[in-house]
Every structure is written in structure tokens, then in C-alpha cells.
Amino acid sequence: MRKQIAAANWKMNLTLNEASTLLDELLNTPHSLKAHQEAIFAVPAPYISLATQKLGDKMNIFVAAQNCHQKNSGAYTGEVSATMFASMGVKHIVIGHSERREYFAETDALLAEKLDAVLAIGSTPIFCCGEPLAIREAATQNEFVASQLQNSLFHLSAEQIVKVVIAYEPIWAIGTGKTATSDQAQEIHAYIRSFLATKYGQAIADQISILYGGSVKASNAVELFSNPDVDGGLVGGASLIATEFAAIINALK
Ligand code: PEP
Question: Quick one: how far is CA 176 from the chain centroid?
């Protein structure tokens, strides 16, 4: 079975003490992970040591970074490389979140470079894609997402693409409280998988985990995740509440 993943994206939230409390609360809230399930915590970079201390030895729980630079090292003041994260025990990195595309002008071409950097050191990129509201209203979301995938991912080999986790996140659903319906999520996830199959073949496409992101909560996670092509979620707001995120972990199939 494909990996089923609940990934928390804390974004730029919480102080160190608040982060510590949230991790303790989460560990004390009943949740369980089967062999094919993972929980991943994309915490702010300064809290990675704290998170790896608290979570590092837990089965199927991983700490992730929210972004990285495309180069390994050099004169890039303020940046952090995938190599640096790996040296701290972090092997999952979110790449291309819509907030980075929008506020930091990250292009498909730049994201392709970041993916290469992450894969080159054996880490796992969680690659985000998804359309803005105007594209959804024009019903051209499939073409929009296909071009994101084609531009950033399709230079990868079959061996590399199976190491990528994809997060489909419609921008109109991120942090808005508006969730895609279960049918909308399944429809585009199935499309993404079929599009991957056109390039890599069905057997490879069937191995790739595709997460849904956009106002996932404890109350909608079971229904969203029950879809055959939805392999879990990338969760912002609800990941900041221990009981919510524990319930989302427990909703994985
Ligand atoms: C996200 O940050 O990727 C996200 C989906 O946020 P939210 O769950 O708050 O919509």
C-alpha cells in the first residue's frame, strides 16, 4: 500500500516554548501509526533541534523543513540548505508551498532546482501544487496543475519521482476554512495520478503518495482521506492544535 501521510505545516507560528508545549501535548494525545502511515512535522527552522529531540526516536514520525535553498552551501546569507537540514536529521522538505510561490516569487524552474537539491542528498521533497480561485472558477485546474508538475518534476527519472510526495493544495482552500469537497479532491488527485502515469507509467504513478491540503480538520479528514487517490493531508491551521492533529493522524487509512 502507498504511504499514507499526515503532514503538519506550522508555517511561521509559535514561540519556542509554545512549540515545545504543542509537541508535548501531541505526544500525550492518543494517536497511532500503522507500518504504512507517517506523521511529519514541518516546523520553523529554528525549532528543528527541539522537534527532533522530542520526536526523533518515535516510529514513523519525522521532522521536516518548510523550505530550503537550491544550493548546498555558499554566500547566501540567511538561507538554509537541504544538506544542512539532513545533517540535523531532517530528511523531508516541503518545496513550492503556494505561500512561497506567492510571497517569495518561487517559480516552477526554481522549484525544479530545489527538488534536485533535496533528492541529490537522499531526502524526500513534499512538492506542493494547486490552483488559485480564478483558475478553479474557469474550470482549468487540471491544465494548471499539469503544467506545474511538468515544469518542476518531469525532468526527474522514474527512480527519483517515486521518492517525491506530492501535496495538492488548492490555494482558495488554504487557511480560508473552505475545503475542497471530497469529490473535488478525489477527482483532481486521480487526474494528477493519471498525468504522472502518462510520463512514468501506471506502476510508478501508483506508488506516489498524493496528499490533499486546504483547511483539513479533524471533522473532514476521515471523508477526505477515504478517497482512493487521497493519501493523507498537508495541514496548516489544524496542526497547531494537538487534539485536532492527533485526530487527523488517526483518520489516515
Ligand atoms: C497549508 O499550510 O499547507 C494548509 C493547507 O493550511 P490550512 O490547513 O490552514 O488550510
Answer: 18
DSSP single-letter state for residue 240: G
Give the pTM.
Answer: 0.97
pLDDT at 175: 85
Burial class of residue 248 in the structure, from the number of CB atoms within 10 Å of its CB (0-12 exposed, 13-18 middle, 19+ buried): buried
State the distance from the centre of ligand 1 to the C-alpha of 201, rounded, in angstroms.
30
Taking the CA of residue 9 as reference, the ligand 1 atom at the shortest distance is 2
236 lines ligand 1 (CB under 6 A): yes
Q: Which atom of ligand 1 is nearest to the CA of 98?
A: 3
Q: Can 189 be counted among the known catalytic residues? A: no
Longest dimension (CA), the chain: 47
Tell me, in angstroms, the distance from the centre of ligand 1 to residue 90's CA: 21
For the segment 8-46, what is each residue's pLDDT rounded down to a tens digit? 999 999 999 999 999 999 999 988 999 999 999 999 999
Whether 36 is catalytic = no
What is the Cα–Cα distance from 31 to 27, expressed in whole angstroms?
8
- Domains, the chain, with CATH or none: 4-250 (3.20.20.70)
Cα(235)–Cα(232) distance, integer angstroms: 9
* Mean pLDDT for the stretch of residues 181-210: 98
Query: If pLDDT is split at 50, 70 and 90, which confidence band does 134 have?
Result: very high
CA of 166 to the centre of ligand 1 (A): 14
Residue 55 neighbours by CB under 8 Å, 6+ apart:
23, 27, 41, 61, 62, 63
Candidate list 97, 106, 131, 189, residue with the active-site label: 97
d(CA 95, CA 33): 25
Q: Are 81 and 72 in contact (CB under 8 A)?
A: yes
